[in-house]
Amino acid sequence: MLFPIGDEQVKGGYFPLFSYGFIVLNIAVFVLQLSSPGMLVGEYAAVPAEIQRGENWPTLLTSMFLHGSFGHLLGNMLFLWVFADNIEATVGNFRFLIFYLLGGMAAHVGHIYFNMGSIVPTVGASGAISAVMGAYLVMFPASRIKLWFFFFIFRVPAFIFLGIWIYMQWSSGWTSIQEGGSSGGVAWWAHIGGFVFGAAAGLYFRSAYPMERVEEVY
Fold first, then answer.
1. For the Peptidase S54 rhomboid domain, which residue ranges apply (predicted)?
2. pTM of the prediction?
3. pLDDT exceeding 90 applies to what percent of the chain?
């Protein structure tokens, strides 16, 4: 499997306080989950059917910081670490904070729309991180992403990697609909909803906050 492990970095800009802070926060919350198995998910995960009834709205936010497994957490934090800092460095700390949270909300909208009445709890930062990836695709399409594949490390332009990624989400999302809503435990439409929101926000960011883009890949 391909894993992104680095990218080209913005020169100067704002220190990515929230990009790194969210990584720390998500890890801390996961440690709490391990100390009280099931309790945090049962209390703070978002359930589409409840949201539709106007219940437990705060879970739209709290669920973004919960994860179903260590692998779920690791994958999300890796993508957040690679893609978020350039955006925050460009647009500023508090703009990034608002963008990230709104991206998570947009992801919930996409998931709930295609999972009406579902009582399956939803957790994870991947919707908000998908928004980050959508914005990255628009803002830094030519940035080289460093990928790790078993014993090989190579680089590809962001538009190729992220283009393939969103195609896979879209394909899996439509397959889940054709199979009667079976998603294999993955909220594909949350990923798609977040990504679309992020791409739209990226169009605005690209014009409103131009700056020197990159330096060496790390």
1. 56-206
2. 0.92
3. 77
